[in-house]
Amino acid sequence: MAQIVSVHSFRGGTGKSSTTANLAGIYAQSGLRVGVVDADIQSPGVHVLFGLAGDDINVAINDYLWGSTPLVETAIDVTAAAGADVPGSIHLVPSSTQPGEITQALRDGYDAQHFTQGLRDLVDDLGLDVLLIDTHPGLNEETLLSIVVSHTVAMVLRPDHQDYEGTGIAVEVARQLEVPNLKLIVNKAPMSLNPELLRTRVEEAYDAEAIGVIPHSDALMTLASEGLFIARNPDHELTKLYRTIGPALLT
Ligand SMILES: Nc1ncnc2c1ncn2[C@@H]1O[C@H](COP(=O)(O)OP(=O)(O)OP(=O)(O)O)[C@@H](O)[C@H]1O
Ligand SMILES: [Mg+2]
Fold it and tell me: Can you name the CATH fold of 3-141+154-245?
């Protein structure tokens, strides 16, 4: 059965989009059909990691939510970002970068059921094995709706006290929404911290499994979201780490 996974964090800049995009690459490299939805309508960006600029986006999730375009028709095949001859595929539903469309999203509501039904239909229409939803930080409507349709929420957090408190809030909300699986991914961990100790600490704090502790990486920072790290650095330790996180996220 297809797995729907929301990638979330309470605070911004934790690494949701880069984790989402690199895991999509890992899944496609292992032969899966992967969907990625940019549900960060207020500040979209994950398309950049797949090599697209805002101007390359002609139709977006906005045309589904506030128009009559079927969601499947907004999906762009971005498999090439994961490398040549990848056995699986990646289908990106982008979010519009047009200022007018972003402000419309903030101004006009939409039918919640239309949003959730669109995500479920997308899985069927594209025959997906995995659907990853990249969310806006904090708790907005799209995020809550994404969590509601998800089998798993991956909560990304930095080892930072502001993140710790925020993650507590987001975890509580995910539990109230009865998401079946909650997994933690610690990102940007300083090299000086013991990853195993960090893992144990967050697992105890949130009573949830931590499926990876990703170090702060100059190599990732230097790539600056210009493509998928795992495709450009197939033998890097970080890529090996993403390869262990990918399967651990799918239940
Ligand atoms: N492990 C890491 N080491 C170093 N830099 C990282 C790491 N993970 C992500 N980054 C960098 O941090 C920045 C923010 O990452 P990203 O856009 O993925 O976060 P985000 O949670 O999606 O942000 P937002 O909340 O704004 O959507 C990017 O420049 C990215 O390259
Ligand atoms: Mg993001």
Answer: Rossmann fold (3.40.50)
